[in-house]
Structures are given as structure tokens and as C-alpha cells.
Amino acid sequence: MEHPVLTGVIGLLAASVALLALFERIGLPILLAYLLVGIVLGPSGFSWIPHTEDLHFLAEFGVVLLLFTIGLEFSLSRLWTLRKHVFGLGGAQVMITAALGALLAWAAGLVPAAAFVVGGALALSSTAVVSRELARRDELGQQHGRLAVAVLIFQDLAVVPFLILIPVLAGDPETGVWSAIGQASLAGTIVIALMMVAGRWLLRPLFWFIAERGSEELFTLTALLFALAAAWVTEFAGLSLALGSFLAGAMLSETEYRHRLREEIRPFRDVLLGFFFVVIGMMLDLAAVGALLPWVLLALTMLLLIKTLTITILGRLFSVPRGVALHTALLLSQGGEFGLVLVMLAANQGVLGSAVEQVVLGTIILSLALTPLLVAWAGPLSRKVCFREAKTRDSAVHDEE
User: Fold this and answer.
1) Spatial distance between the Cα atoms of 20 and 311, rounded to a whole number of angstroms
2) Nearest CA to 44 among 286, 278, 354, 366?
3) Considering only Cβ atoms within 10 Å of each terminal Cβ, which end of the chain, N or C, has fewer?
4) What is the pLDDT of residue 396?
5) Which of the pair, 118 or 191, is modelled with greater confidence?
């Protein structure tokens, strides 16, 4: 008896294991391995796994758990310590890069809603890839590492308003965009406030009670239940699944159980998030990307240049040494996993057309593939800039003498 689903799952697992082992060995981001699995096994490749709406919905649970774990890191004390670079440098980077990207997309002929999504998606860098590369090189504690993490924290937080606004942009155009945004913002504020109040008064006693029972299975299942229930609440309110899971993590971040929760959720998150990126790879139409390759390469070039220049200039305005600012900018010049999340959401909502979707997906995926090279070049380039800066400064002092 044949089992097509079982055959597809076995093929998916076998390809994932083989490519992950290969990518780990040669130092490429494992995110790219998952994307390649989706490309090879999806409609553009061998068509072993069908591309369906149910598959999209299942893949979203990876994003739900990713946002939940990010919410667990949403510590107010940590944000306050890094507030200058998180909200100052990070906020300026996201707003300026998103605005420039949106303006260029609008100038290229996109409607304002689609241009807004493209700008926002390309403004975000890869938290997963950059953090992994910095940790692998033992650079998280260095100045450029701390600065990159601060900007990535704001980018992760900036995903939340985009998750609110994209469904609004897909709504009835006769309602008016600003009116719809106002209604969504009001609904989002009310839902967030109610969930935070409920979480503050109910969650700590609940998880204390469960922890006292001493059952690992009960603790893990309760955490999953709460993350998925919170996601269901926000979707029911007309927002998004991922927003609810982020709020759930944020509510639990102030409890003594956040580290344990992160460890319990991590295996589910990693597996389902890998599946999400497989589905993203299935969305990539190689024939369409090939036909649109000049646009993809142009978008990739503009993405790397704009983000590198923007972050470098902003870093200097925030009194960051020139070499450190350039090093940080090169680390963050790629697209990221949350950009893929926004593109997927916008495409499902009908905000992005097929051609635009393929160009943005191709741009982000190629930029992720270049990240190991960017990380390798960032150090030597920044040291060269620092050397020239120091040499110029010494020359100026010598001239004064």
C-alpha cells in the first residue's frame, strides 16, 4: 500500500538532514538549507510536496513559536540598558530604510500598499543568521556585536506593527487606509492591554502551580497551549497569529520561568520554523525568478548599498567609531527571516502580486546566501577604516605640533 504523505515526509526529512549536514560543514546558514529543500522538493523542483493553503497554515506555527521565544527575551530592564541604540539607532534604521525602500518600490510602479510592505520587509535583517555568526566567531560581546544585537532587537519589535498593518492594507479600499489603520491600532491596543493585564495577574500563579506539580510534560503542554491560545485570540480579533504569540512571550518574560520556557519550546520552534522556511522555498518560482533576474539583482544591490550606508551614517551620528559603524552595517545589510514572514503574509492577503513576491523573495534569499561572505569581509574592512582614521588623526595632531 502506498502512502504519498509518508513518502513526502521521508523525502523532506532525508533532504533536510543531508543539506543541513552539508551547510553546517561548509559554514553556510542552515536557513538556506531549508529554503533549498523547499525549492528542490516543491513545485519548482520534483513536486514531491504539494503547495497548499493548509501547508501554509501549518508552517505559520513555526513563526508563532519564534515570536513566542522572542517575546520571552522582551525584558524591560534589558531594553532600558540598551535604549539609546535599540530605540535610537534601531528605530532610525528601520524607519529610514523602510521609507527609502518604499519610495524606490513606488517609483518602480508599485501601488502604495505593496511599496510599504516591500520597504518594511527589506528593512529587516536576519536575527537568526547574524546572531549565529557572531556567536560562532565569539563576537557577541564586542562593540560591533552589541550594536548589531541592539538594532536587531528593535527590528524584532518592529515586526509587530507590520503584522497589524498588513491585514489592514488588504482590507476594503473603500473604507480608507487611514481609517482602517486607526481601527486596527485601536483594536490592537485594547487586545494588547487586556492580554498584558490578564497575564500579569494570572500567569505567574498558574505557572507556579504547574511547576509545583513537578511534571515536565504538563509544563511543556501548558506553555504550548498558552502560546497557541494567545495567537488564536489575536487572530480572532482581526490581527495575526504571530502577534498573539509575541504578547504571550512578553507576558511570561517577567516571570522566573522564562529561561525554562525557552528551553522547553526550543525543539518545537526549531523543527516548525525549519518547516516554515521549507514552505518559503516552495513559494520561490525558479522560472519566474530567472525571468525577473535583472530586477532581483538590482534589488539585491540596492538593498546591500542602502542598508550599509544608512547604518554606517546613523552609527556616526550616534557617536559610534567609523570602523565599528561600518562593521555593524555590513553585518546587518542582508534581508532576514521576518522579511520572508511579511512577504508570505502580504502575498496570502493579496497585497503583493506574484511578480513582486518573487523578486522580493529572491532578493532576500540571495542576500542571506551572501551573509557569511559579508561577515568575513566586515572585520578586515572595518579594521582598514579604523587604521586610516587613526592615521588621519595622527597626521592632524602632527601638523598642529
Assistant:
1) 32
2) 286
3) N
4) 46
5) 118
Q: Is residue 43 part of a domain?
A: no
Residue listed under C-alpha cell 508570505: 344
pLDDT attached to residue 313: 93
What is the CB neighbour count within 10 angstroms for residue 202?
11
- The number of folded domains in the chain is 1
> Does some domain include residue 137?
yes
Phi-psi region of 176 (alpha: psi -120 to 50; beta: other; left: phi over 0): left
> Does residue 400 have a pLDDT over 60?
no
Name the packing angle between helices 337-349 and 127-136 (round to 10°): 170
**3-state DSSP call for residue 215?**
coil
Q: What is the mean pLDDT of residues 218-222?
A: 84
Whether the per-residue pLDDT at 38 is higher than 90: the answer is: no
Rounded to whole angstroms, the Cα distance separating 122 from 343 reads 10
CATH number of the CATH domain containing 83: 1.20.1530.20
CA distances from 119 to 42, 188, 265, 295, 342 (A): 28, 22, 32, 15, 11
- Single-letter amino acid, residue 94: V
